[in-house]
Protein backbone atom coordinates (compact mmCIF):
# COMPACT_ATOMS: atom_id res chain seq x y z
CA UNK A 1 0.00 0.00 0.00
CA UNK A 2 2.82 2.41 0.90
CA UNK A 3 4.55 1.71 -2.41
CA UNK A 4 1.35 2.23 -4.36
CA UNK A 5 0.66 5.50 -2.54
CA UNK A 6 4.23 6.61 -3.13
CA UNK A 7 3.80 5.81 -6.83
CA UNK A 8 0.58 7.82 -7.12
CA UNK A 9 2.11 10.79 -5.30
CA UNK A 10 5.15 10.64 -7.55
CA UNK A 11 2.96 10.62 -10.65
CA UNK A 12 0.87 13.48 -9.28
CA UNK A 13 3.93 15.56 -8.47
CA UNK A 14 5.14 14.99 -12.02
CA UNK A 15 1.97 16.56 -13.36
CA UNK A 16 2.00 19.41 -10.86
CA UNK A 17 5.64 20.21 -11.57
CA UNK A 18 4.88 20.26 -15.27
CA UNK A 19 1.89 22.62 -15.10
CA UNK A 20 3.72 25.38 -16.92
CA UNK A 21 4.62 23.00 -19.72
CA UNK A 22 1.06 21.70 -20.03
CA UNK A 23 -0.73 25.06 -19.83
CA UNK A 24 -3.74 25.24 -22.10
CA UNK A 25 -2.44 26.66 -25.35
CA UNK A 26 -3.01 26.01 -29.02
CA UNK A 27 -0.08 24.09 -30.47
CA UNK A 28 1.07 24.09 -34.06
CA UNK A 29 0.68 20.61 -35.48
CA UNK A 30 3.82 18.45 -35.67
CA UNK A 31 5.56 18.03 -39.00
CA UNK A 32 5.11 14.76 -40.90
CA UNK A 33 8.14 12.60 -41.58
CA UNK A 34 8.70 11.40 -45.13
CA UNK A 35 7.78 9.22 -46.86
CA UNK A 36 4.01 9.55 -46.43
CA UNK A 37 1.20 7.24 -47.53
CA UNK A 38 -0.94 8.21 -50.52
CA UNK A 39 -4.73 8.22 -50.38
CA UNK A 40 -4.86 4.67 -51.74
CA UNK A 41 -2.61 3.59 -48.85
CA UNK A 42 -4.93 5.20 -46.31
CA UNK A 43 -7.89 3.32 -47.80
CA UNK A 44 -5.83 0.13 -47.59
CA UNK A 45 -4.84 0.94 -44.00
CA UNK A 46 -8.47 0.97 -42.88
CA UNK A 47 -8.83 -2.74 -43.61
CA UNK A 48 -5.76 -4.52 -42.16
CA UNK A 49 -6.86 -7.90 -43.59
CA UNK A 50 -7.87 -8.93 -47.08
CA UNK A 51 -9.06 -12.27 -48.44
CA UNK A 52 -7.27 -14.02 -51.32
CA UNK A 53 -9.30 -16.43 -53.48
CA UNK A 54 -7.47 -18.98 -55.65
CA UNK A 55 -9.97 -20.49 -58.05
CA UNK A 56 -9.70 -21.88 -61.58
CA UNK A 57 -8.98 -25.05 -63.53
CA UNK A 58 -6.48 -26.13 -60.88
CA UNK A 59 -9.47 -26.57 -58.57
CA UNK A 60 -10.62 -29.39 -60.86
CA UNK A 61 -7.24 -30.98 -61.66
CA UNK A 62 -6.15 -31.05 -58.00
CA UNK A 63 -2.99 -29.17 -59.00
CA UNK A 64 -1.22 -26.10 -57.66
CA UNK A 65 0.23 -25.11 -61.04
CA UNK A 66 -1.53 -26.02 -64.24
CA UNK A 67 0.26 -26.17 -67.61
CA UNK A 68 -2.16 -24.34 -69.90
CA UNK A 69 -3.37 -27.46 -71.74
CA UNK A 70 -6.49 -27.95 -69.61
CA UNK A 71 -9.82 -28.41 -71.33
CA UNK A 72 -11.99 -25.44 -70.31
CA UNK A 73 -14.92 -27.84 -70.11
CA UNK A 74 -13.67 -29.13 -66.76
CA UNK A 75 -14.51 -25.79 -65.16
CA UNK A 76 -18.01 -26.46 -63.80
CA UNK A 77 -18.74 -24.55 -60.55
CA UNK A 78 -22.42 -25.45 -60.68
CA UNK A 79 -23.18 -24.00 -57.24
CA UNK A 80 -20.98 -20.91 -57.53
CA UNK A 81 -22.05 -18.43 -54.87
CA UNK A 82 -19.83 -15.37 -54.60
CA UNK A 83 -22.39 -13.96 -52.16
CA UNK A 84 -21.27 -16.70 -49.78
CA UNK A 85 -17.64 -15.62 -50.23
CA UNK A 86 -18.50 -11.98 -49.59
CA UNK A 87 -20.78 -12.64 -46.63
CA UNK A 88 -18.15 -14.77 -44.90
CA UNK A 89 -15.43 -12.20 -45.64
CA UNK A 90 -17.53 -9.34 -44.28
CA UNK A 91 -18.60 -11.14 -41.13
CA UNK A 92 -15.10 -12.36 -40.28
CA UNK A 93 -13.32 -9.01 -40.57
CA UNK A 94 -11.96 -8.75 -44.11
CA UNK A 95 -12.32 -5.60 -46.18
CA UNK A 96 -11.48 -6.69 -49.74
CA UNK A 97 -11.52 -9.93 -51.74
CA UNK A 98 -8.63 -10.43 -54.18
CA UNK A 99 -9.45 -12.99 -56.89
CA UNK A 100 -7.04 -14.90 -59.14
CA UNK A 101 -8.66 -13.72 -62.38
CA UNK A 102 -5.94 -15.66 -64.24
CA UNK A 103 -3.34 -18.02 -62.79
CA UNK A 104 -0.20 -19.37 -64.47
CA UNK A 105 -2.22 -21.80 -66.62
CA UNK A 106 -3.70 -18.80 -68.45
CA UNK A 107 -7.35 -19.75 -67.79
CA UNK A 108 -9.39 -16.54 -67.49
CA UNK A 109 -12.31 -16.36 -65.07
CA UNK A 110 -14.02 -13.86 -67.34
CA UNK A 111 -14.85 -14.03 -71.04
CA UNK A 112 -11.71 -12.51 -72.57
CA UNK A 113 -11.48 -11.41 -76.17
CA UNK A 114 -7.78 -12.35 -76.19
CA UNK A 115 -7.99 -16.09 -75.49
CA UNK A 116 -10.21 -19.14 -75.80
CA UNK A 117 -8.76 -20.52 -72.58
CA UNK A 118 -11.49 -18.96 -70.48
CA UNK A 119 -14.92 -19.43 -68.95
CA UNK A 120 -16.54 -18.61 -72.28
CA UNK A 121 -15.19 -21.90 -73.68
CA UNK A 122 -16.86 -23.94 -70.94
CA UNK A 123 -20.47 -25.12 -71.13
CA UNK A 124 -20.93 -23.77 -67.61
CA UNK A 125 -23.78 -21.26 -67.82
CA UNK A 126 -23.83 -21.91 -71.56
CA UNK A 127 -20.54 -20.12 -72.03
CA UNK A 128 -21.80 -16.90 -70.47
CA UNK A 129 -20.36 -17.36 -66.98
CA UNK A 130 -18.25 -14.60 -65.44
CA UNK A 131 -16.71 -15.23 -62.02
CA UNK A 132 -15.14 -11.77 -61.92
CA UNK A 133 -18.49 -10.16 -62.71
CA UNK A 134 -20.28 -12.21 -60.06
CA UNK A 135 -17.71 -11.19 -57.47
CA UNK A 136 -18.07 -7.52 -58.40
CA UNK A 137 -21.81 -7.70 -57.68
CA UNK A 138 -21.30 -9.56 -54.40
CA UNK A 139 -18.59 -7.25 -53.04
CA UNK A 140 -20.82 -4.24 -53.71
CA UNK A 141 -23.74 -5.97 -52.01
CA UNK A 142 -21.68 -6.57 -48.86
CA UNK A 143 -19.81 -3.25 -48.97
CA UNK A 144 -16.43 -4.84 -49.67
CA UNK A 145 -13.63 -3.89 -52.00
CA UNK A 146 -12.46 -6.07 -54.89
CA UNK A 147 -8.93 -6.78 -56.05
CA UNK A 148 -7.55 -8.93 -58.85
CA UNK A 149 -4.50 -11.04 -59.66
CA UNK A 150 -3.56 -11.42 -63.33
CA UNK A 151 -0.62 -13.79 -63.63
CA UNK A 152 2.13 -12.36 -65.84
CA UNK A 153 3.25 -15.90 -66.70
CA UNK A 154 0.74 -17.50 -69.07
CA UNK A 155 1.45 -21.07 -70.17
CA UNK A 156 -1.41 -21.10 -72.67
CA UNK A 157 -0.52 -17.95 -74.66
CA UNK A 158 1.39 -18.78 -77.85
CA UNK A 159 2.98 -15.33 -77.89
CA UNK A 160 4.48 -15.68 -74.41
CA UNK A 161 8.20 -14.91 -74.57
CA UNK A 162 7.81 -12.29 -77.31
CA UNK A 163 7.10 -8.59 -77.11
CA UNK A 164 3.65 -9.33 -78.55
CA UNK A 165 2.76 -10.88 -75.21
CA UNK A 166 2.99 -7.46 -73.56
CA UNK A 167 0.23 -6.29 -75.89
CA UNK A 168 -1.76 -9.46 -75.13
CA UNK A 169 -1.33 -8.94 -71.38
CA UNK A 170 -2.25 -5.26 -71.51
CA UNK A 171 -5.33 -6.15 -73.52
CA UNK A 172 -6.51 -8.49 -70.76
CA UNK A 173 -5.48 -5.97 -68.14
CA UNK A 174 -7.59 -3.31 -69.83
CA UNK A 175 -10.63 -5.61 -69.85
CA UNK A 176 -10.36 -6.06 -66.09
CA UNK A 177 -9.63 -2.42 -65.36
CA UNK A 178 -12.50 -1.13 -67.51
CA UNK A 179 -15.39 -3.51 -66.94
CA UNK A 180 -15.59 -4.38 -63.25
CA UNK A 181 -15.97 -1.19 -61.28
CA UNK A 182 -13.52 0.20 -58.76
CA UNK A 183 -10.61 -2.00 -57.72
CA UNK A 184 -8.70 -1.66 -54.46
CA UNK A 185 -5.71 -3.87 -55.18
CA UNK A 186 -3.91 -5.35 -58.17
CA UNK A 187 -1.57 -8.22 -57.45
CA UNK A 188 1.56 -9.11 -59.44
CA UNK A 189 4.26 -11.71 -58.98
CA UNK A 190 7.23 -13.03 -60.93
CA UNK A 191 6.59 -16.74 -60.47
CA UNK A 192 7.38 -19.08 -63.36
CA UNK A 193 8.67 -22.60 -63.71
CA UNK A 194 12.02 -23.92 -64.94
CA UNK A 195 12.98 -23.95 -68.62
CA UNK A 196 10.45 -21.23 -69.44
CA UNK A 197 11.01 -18.69 -72.21
CA UNK A 198 12.56 -15.44 -71.10
CA UNK A 199 10.02 -12.63 -71.02
CA UNK A 200 10.67 -8.92 -70.70
CA UNK A 201 7.55 -7.75 -68.91
CA UNK A 202 6.72 -4.06 -69.16
CA UNK A 203 5.66 -3.68 -65.55
CA UNK A 204 6.08 0.09 -65.51
CA UNK A 205 3.59 0.33 -68.38
CA UNK A 206 1.18 -2.07 -66.69
CA UNK A 207 1.34 -0.01 -63.51
CA UNK A 208 0.79 3.25 -65.39
CA UNK A 209 -2.35 1.80 -66.96
CA UNK A 210 -3.68 0.90 -63.53
CA UNK A 211 -2.83 4.34 -62.13
CA UNK A 212 -4.79 5.93 -64.96
CA UNK A 213 -7.88 3.72 -64.75
CA UNK A 214 -7.90 2.65 -61.09
CA UNK A 215 -6.17 5.37 -59.03
CA UNK A 216 -7.32 3.96 -55.67
CA UNK A 217 -5.91 0.47 -56.26
CA UNK A 218 -2.68 -0.39 -54.45
CA UNK A 219 -0.18 -2.31 -56.57
CA UNK A 220 1.45 -5.35 -54.97
CA UNK A 221 4.65 -7.15 -55.99
CA UNK A 222 8.15 -7.90 -54.69
CA UNK A 223 9.10 -4.40 -55.82
CA UNK A 224 5.90 -2.65 -54.78
CA UNK A 225 5.35 0.03 -55.89
CA UNK A 226 2.56 0.47 -53.29
CA UNK A 227 2.73 -2.72 -51.23
CA UNK A 228 5.57 -5.22 -51.18
CA UNK A 229 5.84 -8.95 -50.54
CA UNK A 230 7.21 -9.69 -47.08
CA UNK A 231 9.66 -12.33 -48.32
CA UNK A 232 7.91 -15.56 -47.27
CA UNK A 233 4.56 -17.30 -47.49
CA UNK A 234 4.22 -18.20 -43.81
CA UNK A 235 2.35 -15.00 -42.93
CA UNK A 236 5.20 -13.71 -40.76
CA UNK A 237 6.86 -10.31 -40.81
CA UNK A 238 10.08 -9.43 -38.96
CA UNK A 239 9.86 -7.72 -35.54
CA UNK A 240 11.62 -4.73 -37.10
CA UNK A 241 9.53 -3.62 -40.06
CA UNK A 242 9.63 -0.18 -41.69
CA UNK A 243 7.04 0.99 -44.22
CA UNK A 244 9.75 2.91 -46.04
CA UNK A 245 11.11 1.11 -49.10
CA UNK A 246 13.77 1.67 -51.75
CA UNK A 247 12.68 -1.02 -54.25
CA UNK A 248 16.05 -2.79 -54.15
CA UNK A 249 14.65 -5.78 -56.03
CA UNK A 250 12.40 -6.29 -59.07
CA UNK A 251 9.27 -8.33 -59.70
CA UNK A 252 10.48 -11.92 -59.53
CA UNK A 253 13.98 -10.66 -58.74
CA UNK A 254 16.39 -11.90 -56.07
CA UNK A 255 15.51 -11.95 -52.40
CA UNK A 256 16.91 -8.94 -50.54
CA UNK A 257 16.76 -8.11 -46.79
CA UNK A 258 14.63 -5.06 -47.53
CA UNK A 259 11.72 -7.38 -48.34
CA UNK A 260 11.40 -8.39 -44.70
CA UNK A 261 12.65 -5.30 -42.87
CA UNK A 262 11.67 -2.40 -45.12
CA UNK A 263 14.03 0.56 -44.87
CA UNK A 264 14.32 3.14 -42.10
CA UNK A 265 15.37 5.69 -44.70
CA UNK A 266 13.22 4.37 -47.54
CA UNK A 267 12.32 6.74 -50.34
CA UNK A 268 8.82 5.33 -50.91
CA UNK A 269 5.88 4.50 -48.63
CA UNK A 270 5.55 0.80 -49.47
CA UNK A 271 4.37 -1.28 -46.49
CA UNK A 272 4.64 -5.06 -46.43
CA UNK A 273 1.86 -7.55 -47.06
CA UNK A 274 1.94 -11.05 -45.57
CA UNK A 275 0.31 -13.64 -47.81
CA UNK A 276 -0.58 -17.07 -46.44
CA UNK A 277 -3.15 -19.75 -47.20
CA UNK A 278 -5.67 -21.09 -44.72
CA UNK A 279 -4.63 -24.52 -45.98
CA UNK A 280 -1.33 -26.12 -46.93
CA UNK A 281 -1.88 -25.27 -50.61
CA UNK A 282 -3.27 -22.29 -52.47
CA UNK A 283 -5.98 -24.16 -54.40
CA UNK A 284 -8.62 -26.38 -52.85
CA UNK A 285 -7.51 -29.94 -52.11
CA UNK A 286 -10.02 -31.95 -50.12
CA UNK A 287 -7.38 -33.83 -48.15
CA UNK A 288 -5.99 -30.61 -46.63
CA UNK A 289 -7.45 -29.31 -43.36
CA UNK A 290 -7.82 -25.65 -42.44
CA UNK A 291 -5.35 -24.07 -40.06
CA UNK A 292 -6.32 -24.07 -36.41
CA UNK A 293 -7.46 -20.96 -34.58
CA UNK A 294 -4.22 -21.01 -32.58
CA UNK A 295 -2.18 -21.04 -35.79
CA UNK A 296 -4.24 -18.23 -37.35
CA UNK A 297 -3.81 -16.13 -34.20
CA UNK A 298 -0.06 -16.71 -34.30
CA UNK A 299 -0.06 -15.53 -37.92
CA UNK A 300 -2.07 -12.45 -36.92
CA UNK A 301 0.35 -11.53 -34.13
CA UNK A 302 3.33 -11.94 -36.47
CA UNK A 303 1.82 -10.08 -39.43
CA UNK A 304 -0.77 -7.47 -38.45
CA UNK A 305 1.07 -7.26 -35.14
CA UNK A 306 4.33 -6.37 -36.87
CA UNK A 307 3.30 -3.42 -39.03
CA UNK A 308 2.15 -5.62 -41.90
CA UNK A 309 -1.07 -6.18 -43.80
CA UNK A 310 -2.55 -9.66 -44.02
CA UNK A 311 -3.77 -11.51 -47.12
CA UNK A 312 -5.29 -14.88 -46.18
CA UNK A 313 -6.15 -17.25 -49.00
CA UNK A 314 -9.41 -19.23 -48.87
CA UNK A 315 -9.81 -21.54 -51.92
CA UNK A 316 -13.33 -22.44 -53.10
CA UNK A 317 -14.14 -26.07 -53.86
CA UNK A 318 -15.33 -27.57 -57.15
CA UNK A 319 -18.89 -26.40 -56.48
CA UNK A 320 -17.66 -22.80 -56.27
CA UNK A 321 -18.24 -22.56 -52.52
CA UNK A 322 -15.99 -21.99 -49.53
CA UNK A 323 -15.55 -25.31 -47.74
CA UNK A 324 -17.38 -25.60 -44.41
CA UNK A 325 -14.09 -26.33 -42.63
CA UNK A 326 -12.56 -23.08 -43.89
CA UNK A 327 -15.68 -21.09 -43.04
CA UNK A 328 -15.68 -22.47 -39.50
CA UNK A 329 -11.99 -21.62 -39.13
CA UNK A 330 -12.60 -18.02 -40.23
CA UNK A 331 -15.47 -17.47 -37.79
CA UNK A 332 -13.49 -18.99 -34.93
CA UNK A 333 -10.53 -16.79 -35.84
CA UNK A 334 -12.80 -13.72 -35.75
CA UNK A 335 -14.24 -14.74 -32.37
CA UNK A 336 -10.75 -15.23 -30.95
CA UNK A 337 -9.62 -11.77 -32.08
CA UNK A 338 -12.76 -10.15 -30.69
CA UNK A 339 -12.33 -11.89 -27.35
CA UNK A 340 -8.78 -10.57 -27.00
CA UNK A 341 -9.19 -7.01 -28.21
CA UNK A 342 -12.70 -6.08 -27.07
CA UNK A 343 -11.31 -5.07 -23.66
CA UNK A 344 -8.44 -2.62 -23.20
CA UNK A 345 -7.48 -2.53 -19.53
CA UNK A 346 -5.89 0.92 -19.87
CA UNK A 347 -9.13 2.42 -21.21
CA UNK A 348 -10.01 4.05 -17.85
CA UNK A 349 -6.47 4.54 -16.59
CA UNK A 350 -5.09 7.81 -15.29
CA UNK A 351 -2.33 8.74 -17.72
CA UNK A 352 0.73 10.81 -16.86
CA UNK A 353 3.20 11.86 -19.62
CA UNK A 354 6.57 13.53 -19.17
CA UNK A 355 5.76 15.77 -22.15
CA UNK A 356 2.63 16.92 -23.97
CA UNK A 357 2.80 19.17 -27.00
CA UNK A 358 2.44 22.75 -25.69
CA UNK A 359 -0.09 21.45 -23.16
CA UNK A 360 -2.69 21.34 -25.94
CA UNK A 361 -5.54 18.87 -25.31
CA UNK A 362 -5.44 18.08 -29.01
CA UNK A 363 -2.28 16.08 -28.25
CA UNK A 364 -3.25 14.71 -24.85
CA UNK A 365 -2.05 11.22 -23.86
CA UNK A 366 -5.73 10.37 -23.37
CA UNK A 367 -5.84 10.12 -27.17
CA UNK A 368 -4.02 6.79 -26.78
CA UNK A 369 -7.15 5.15 -25.33
CA UNK A 370 -9.97 7.01 -27.10
CA UNK A 371 -10.53 4.29 -29.75
CA UNK A 372 -9.82 6.81 -32.51
CA UNK A 373 -6.86 5.85 -34.71
CA UNK A 374 -6.77 9.34 -36.22
CA UNK A 375 -6.08 11.13 -32.92
CA UNK A 376 -2.67 10.97 -31.24
CA UNK A 377 -0.48 12.03 -28.36
CA UNK A 378 2.44 14.23 -29.40
CA UNK A 379 5.48 15.77 -27.74
CA UNK A 380 7.07 19.15 -28.28
CA UNK A 381 9.38 19.59 -31.24
CA UNK A 382 12.73 17.90 -30.82
CA UNK A 383 11.58 15.58 -28.01
CA UNK A 384 12.68 12.10 -29.05
CA UNK A 385 12.55 10.43 -25.64
CA UNK A 386 9.53 10.44 -23.34
CA UNK A 387 7.63 8.35 -20.82
CA UNK A 388 3.99 7.77 -20.05
CA UNK A 389 2.70 6.17 -16.85
CA UNK A 390 -0.67 4.37 -16.90
CA UNK A 391 -2.27 4.01 -13.46
CA UNK A 392 -5.16 1.58 -13.96
CA UNK A 393 -8.15 1.61 -11.62
CA UNK A 394 -7.19 -1.83 -10.25
CA UNK A 395 -4.87 -4.71 -10.97
CA UNK A 396 -5.37 -6.60 -14.24
CA UNK A 397 -3.86 -9.74 -15.71
CA UNK A 398 -2.80 -9.45 -19.35
CA UNK A 399 -0.38 -10.97 -21.87
CA UNK A 400 -0.72 -8.71 -24.93
CA UNK A 401 0.46 -5.13 -25.47
CA UNK A 402 -0.77 -3.11 -28.47
CA UNK A 403 0.75 0.10 -29.87
CA UNK A 404 0.07 2.17 -33.00
CA UNK A 405 1.48 5.25 -34.71
CA UNK A 406 -0.64 7.69 -36.79
CA UNK A 407 0.84 6.50 -40.09
CA UNK A 408 -0.60 9.36 -42.12
CA UNK A 409 2.14 11.39 -40.42
CA UNK A 410 4.85 8.90 -41.39
CA UNK A 411 6.63 6.27 -39.34
CA UNK A 412 9.10 7.41 -36.70
CA UNK A 413 9.47 5.32 -33.50
CA UNK A 414 12.82 3.47 -33.43
CA UNK A 415 13.02 2.01 -29.91
CA UNK A 416 10.75 1.61 -26.88
CA UNK A 417 10.07 -0.47 -23.78
CA UNK A 418 6.92 -1.31 -21.86
CA UNK A 419 7.34 -1.85 -18.12
CA UNK A 420 5.04 -3.15 -15.39
CA UNK A 421 5.28 -2.36 -11.67
CA UNK A 422 5.97 -5.79 -10.14
CA UNK A 423 6.99 -6.16 -6.50
CA UNK A 424 7.52 -2.38 -6.32
CA UNK A 425 9.99 -2.49 -9.22
CA UNK A 426 9.62 -1.42 -12.84
CA UNK A 427 10.09 -4.60 -14.90
CA UNK A 428 10.38 -4.71 -18.71
CA UNK A 429 7.64 -6.91 -20.15
CA UNK A 430 8.00 -5.94 -23.83
CA UNK A 431 10.45 -4.00 -25.96
CA UNK A 432 10.82 -3.32 -29.61
CA UNK A 433 12.11 -1.16 -32.42
CA UNK A 434 9.46 -0.20 -34.99
CA UNK A 435 5.75 0.26 -34.32
CA UNK A 436 4.04 1.56 -37.47
CA UNK A 437 0.31 0.98 -38.02
CA UNK A 438 0.21 -1.71 -35.30
CA UNK A 439 2.63 -3.54 -33.04
CA UNK A 440 1.53 -6.44 -30.85
CA UNK A 441 3.68 -8.04 -28.17
CA UNK A 442 2.77 -11.32 -26.47
CA UNK A 443 4.34 -12.66 -23.30
CA UNK A 444 3.76 -14.68 -20.15
CA UNK A 445 0.75 -13.26 -18.22
CA UNK A 446 1.51 -10.30 -15.96
CA UNK A 447 -0.66 -8.88 -13.17
CA UNK A 448 -0.23 -5.23 -12.25
CA UNK A 449 -2.02 -1.93 -11.77
CA UNK A 450 0.72 0.33 -13.11
CA UNK A 451 2.44 0.46 -16.50
CA UNK A 452 5.10 2.65 -18.02
CA UNK A 453 5.79 3.19 -21.71
CA UNK A 454 9.27 4.50 -22.45
CA UNK A 455 10.00 5.85 -25.93
CA UNK A 456 13.77 5.56 -26.19
CA UNK A 457 14.39 6.83 -29.72
CA UNK A 458 12.45 8.38 -32.58
CA UNK A 459 13.24 9.83 -36.00
CA UNK A 460 11.47 13.01 -34.94
CA UNK A 461 8.86 14.44 -32.59
CA UNK A 462 7.08 11.53 -30.89
CA UNK A 463 3.56 10.74 -32.12
CA UNK A 464 1.56 7.75 -30.88
CA UNK A 465 -2.09 7.00 -31.60
CA UNK A 466 -2.96 3.89 -29.59
CA UNK A 467 -1.87 1.94 -26.52
CA UNK A 468 -3.61 -1.00 -24.93
CA UNK A 469 -3.12 -4.14 -22.89
CA UNK A 470 -5.26 -7.24 -23.37
CA UNK A 471 -5.60 -10.85 -22.28
CA UNK A 472 -5.47 -13.76 -24.73
CA UNK A 473 -6.61 -17.02 -23.07
CA UNK A 474 -5.33 -19.07 -26.00
CA UNK A 475 -1.67 -18.19 -25.55
CA UNK A 476 0.17 -21.17 -24.03
CA UNK A 477 1.36 -20.88 -20.44
CA UNK A 478 4.96 -21.36 -21.56
CA UNK A 479 4.72 -18.70 -24.28
CA UNK A 480 7.79 -16.94 -22.95
CA UNK A 481 9.78 -20.04 -23.86
CA UNK A 482 8.60 -19.89 -27.47
CA UNK A 483 10.53 -16.66 -28.10
CA UNK A 484 7.61 -14.74 -29.66
CA UNK A 485 9.96 -12.33 -31.45
CA UNK A 486 12.00 -15.06 -33.15
CA UNK A 487 11.91 -15.15 -36.94
CA UNK A 488 10.93 -18.86 -37.27
CA UNK A 489 12.55 -18.98 -40.69
CA UNK A 490 15.71 -18.25 -42.58
CA UNK A 491 15.92 -15.07 -44.61
CA UNK A 492 14.66 -15.73 -48.10
CA UNK A 493 12.88 -18.98 -47.28
CA UNK A 494 10.17 -19.76 -49.89
CA UNK A 495 11.31 -16.72 -51.81
CA UNK A 496 9.72 -17.80 -55.09
CA UNK A 497 6.56 -15.80 -54.58
CA UNK A 498 3.27 -17.60 -55.08
CA UNK A 499 5.07 -20.82 -55.91
CA UNK A 500 5.32 -22.97 -52.83
CA UNK A 501 2.56 -25.37 -51.89
CA UNK A 502 3.55 -25.82 -48.24
CA UNK A 503 2.79 -22.69 -46.28
CA UNK A 504 3.26 -24.28 -42.88
CA UNK A 505 6.53 -24.13 -40.99
Number of strands: 18
What is the highest CATH level, the class of the largest domain? Alpha Beta
**Average pLDDT reading:** 91
Broad shape: globular
- What is the name of the CATH superfamily of the largest domain? Glycosidases
Uncertain runs are 1-23, 478-505
- The radius of gyration computed from the alpha-carbon positions, rounded to a whole number of angstroms, is 24 Å
Number of helices: 10
Task: Determine the strand fraction and express it as a percent band.
Answer: 15-25%
The secondary structure category is alpha/beta
Number of domains: 2
Describe the protein in words.
- This protein has 505 residues and is α/β, with parallel strands linked by helices.
- The chain folds into two domains: 2-30 and 343-482, Galactose-binding domain-like (Jelly Rolls); 39-341, TIM Barrel (Alpha-Beta Barrel).
- Helix content is 21%, strand content 23%.
- The strands form four sheets. An eight-stranded parallel beta barrel has the order 1-2-3-4-5-6-9-10. Strands 11, 13, 14, 15, 16 and 18 form a six-stranded antiparallel sheet that branches. A two-stranded antiparallel sheet has the order 7-8.
- Strand 14 (413-422) and strand 15 form a beta hairpin.
- Residues 1-23 and 478-505 have low confidence and may be disordered.
Amino acid sequence: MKNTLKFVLLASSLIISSTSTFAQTVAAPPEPIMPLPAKRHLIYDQEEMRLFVHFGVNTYTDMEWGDGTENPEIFQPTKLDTDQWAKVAKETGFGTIVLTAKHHDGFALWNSAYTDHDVGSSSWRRGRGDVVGDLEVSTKKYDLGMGLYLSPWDQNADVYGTDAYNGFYMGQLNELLSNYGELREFWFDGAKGPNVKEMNYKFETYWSMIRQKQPHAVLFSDAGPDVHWIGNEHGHAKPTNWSGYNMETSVGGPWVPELTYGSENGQYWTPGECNVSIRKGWFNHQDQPAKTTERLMEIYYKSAGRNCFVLINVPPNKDGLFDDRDVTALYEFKAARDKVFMTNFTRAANIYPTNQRAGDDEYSPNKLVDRDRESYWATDNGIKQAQIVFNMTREHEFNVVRLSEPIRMGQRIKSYEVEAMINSQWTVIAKGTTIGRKRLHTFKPVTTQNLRLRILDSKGTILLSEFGVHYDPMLPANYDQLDPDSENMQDGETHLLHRTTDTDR
